[in-house]
Amino acid sequence: MITLKPKEQPEVPLEVENVTPDAFAGKTVDEIKALPIWHGNGTVPLSDFFEVEGEAGATAAETQIIIDGDVPQTKRIGSGMTAGEITVKGNVSMYVGVGMKGGKITVEGNAKSWAGQDMSGGELTIMGNTGDYVGSSYRGDWRGMSGGLITVYGDAGNEAAEYMNGGKIVIKGDVSIMPGIHMNNGLLIIEGNVIARTGGEMAGGTIVVKGVIDEFLAGFKYHGVEKDIEVDGETIPGAFYKFTGDYAIKGANGTVYAAVAGNSHIAP
After folding, report:
1. C-alpha span between 209 and 148 (Å, rounded)
2. Which one of 40, 120, 250, 266 has the lowest number of neighbouring Cβ atoms within 10 Å?
3. Residues paired with residue 235 on neighbouring β-strands, in sequence order
4. DSSP secondary structure string, 45-65?
5. Shortest CA distance to 220 belongs to which of 255, 181, 264?
6. Using one digit for the tens of pLDDT, what is the confidence trace for 136-167?
7. Distance CA 160, CA 214 (A)
């Protein structure tokens, strides 16, 4: 296990694409200290901003990284990782788990926007809140998260699961506007409330909302009430209004389930 203890968090954010089990595996502590990280328009050694202790595993799968403290100005933790484990004992900045392919990341605090962007495998758990675009595509692309599992125990911001193509996202708190916008595949479960525009222009995939949707789009077809729904081999108990759409786009084949409790205003 390798422990990174933050020395300070600079005003100009750090980008730490090398803080992964893949990059640490098989290296000595001195070699890990010397790994380059981005600060502004240049690179500096990891040891400029982190104390490094412990021993890495021989492989990524055998390597565990503990970041022991808040790193709210540190981006891209776990970028592209394929195996192993990272635990952050505090808050993180943007792009945690970006491009993640395997392994496990646990953030014990909050995460800023674009958590799990372009994720294709592995497991990302955020114990606090997260910002906008969790599980989204790269800005300007039409291919978002394609695999893996993201679990957010708190609230999420705008456009969760934007352009989602596969995998599963569970948000246990509330979300803001446009969850599942442009969604093509995969499963998004929201256990809290949604402000508006659930599934806007979605072409496929499934969204389940257990809370209240304040405003619902007109481009969905109502199919009545279903109880104890089964999605991706998982049974979700309760009564749900079923909608398909969004027929604002051609070829739409998405499904939205909204809990009957509290949502009579969106049913015909």
Report:
1. 20
2. 250
3. 230
4. EGGGTEEEEE---SSGGG-EE
5. 255
6. 999 888 889 999 999 999 999 999 999 999 99
7. 17
The DSSP-derived string for 61-103 is: GG-EEEE-S-BTTEE-TTTT--SSEEEESS-B-S-TTTT--SS
3-state secondary structure of 23: helix
Task: Calculate the average pLDDT of the chain.
Answer: 97
Q: Which of 245, 105, 116 is nearest to 169 (CA)?
A: 116
Question: Which residue type, as a one-letter code, is found at position 180?
Answer: G
pLDDT given at position 181: 98
- The answer to whether the predicted template modeling score (pTM) of the entire model surpasses 0.90 is yes
Where in the chain are the domains?
A: 113-266
Q: Please name the residues in contact with 84: beta carbons below 8 A apart, sequence gap of 6 or more.
A: 20, 21, 22, 25, 57, 60, 61, 62, 63, 64, 65, 103, 104
Strands 213-215 and 185-190: unpaired
Q: Which helix (H) or strand (E) holds 257?
A: strand 254-259
Within 8 A by CB and 6+ apart from 151, the residues are 123, 124, 125, 126, 169, 170, 172
Instruction: Tell me the two tokens of residue 137.
Output: 């595509």
Structure tokens at 249: 């786009």
Compute the average pLDDT of residues 70-76: 98
Q: Which residues contact 265 (CB under 8 A, 6 or more apart)?
A: none
What DSSP designation does 138 have? Answer: P
pLDDT in tens, 174-210: 999 999 999 999 999 999 999 999 999 999 999 999 9
Separation CA 23–CA 82 (nearest Å): 10
